[in-house]
Amino acid sequence: MIxxxxxxxxxxxxxxxxxxxxxxxxxLNVGLRCDLACHHCHVEAGPNRTEALDRRTxxxxxxxxxxxxxxxxxxxxxxAPELNPEFRHLVRGARERGRKLIDRCNLTVFDQxxxxxxxxxxxxxxxxxxxxxxxxxxxxxxAQRGRGVFARSIDALQRLNRLGYxxxxxxxxxxxxxxxxxxxxxxPQAALEAQYREELRTKFGIAFDRLITITxxxxxxxxxxxxxxxxxxxxxxLLVNHFNPETVPALMCRHxxxxxxxxxxxxxxxxxxxxxxxxxxxxxxxxxxDFGAIEGEPIATATHCYGCTAGAGSxxxxxxx
Length: 321
Hints:
This protein is of the alpha/beta class. The protein has helices at residues 5-14, 55-67, 87-96, 118-124, 138-145, 149-162, 189-204, 220-228, 232-241, 269-273, 306-309; strands at residues 25-29, 73-77, 100-105, 128-132, 174-178, 210-213, 256-259, 265-266. The longest helix has 16 residues, at 189-204.
């Protein structure tokens, strides 16, 4: 592992290196196929992508869950995770092993062939949903994600509410995800959540549990957009200049391991997309039998990591502060 400037800054400003703590979450990218091709997508997912996790890899992940009780959560992402043929096998298997499930859902996937019963399947297996809704304005959502996506997303959220998701008297969790339209940091999460809650309640009767704000990462599709618009240097400077050492203890990479659709291991989903492996050499789920053995290992970092430490911080669970 080659030391990065970001790693040096973390050590200089916090007095300690960035290393992994106990792994409590496996975040599994089941493939890159998606019914959308959003402008900000850091994985470059889309309808024509064919990369996908297979049954052998799915079963190995389930075996690792069974062998490691410290791993509490299986976090399924993509692409649109639901489009992978092994998605339901993973959900059933993880629930049978007593694990929590997160489905990172784009909402429009429910309209795809064969997906009509997916909301009910998710509810029956008590899968928490983290749903993309980058704005409460149809104009902004459609500009970022495609024409008609906002209306389809609202319909999906109403369907989920009818199943009990997001309701205060139910245990089915529904979180929404906001990301900025362009190269800027997200606004304060709590204030934006209140705005979302009021707008969605009064206009559409929609309830949800929490709003998660995520900083756009300067990699893949979003990075190319920045470069095309001549804004790459300015955005990187924004992230670097807003580095906040108070976010470091809560960084998601300290308690999460990212697994690729091919079983390769990474420190986070962003490193996965940049092919930056976990540890000194590339490893897969077939090379590791004890996640406790990687506790205390240095976490691989690069310039994009400033996106997780800028301002209030950012993670797949939202702001860090």
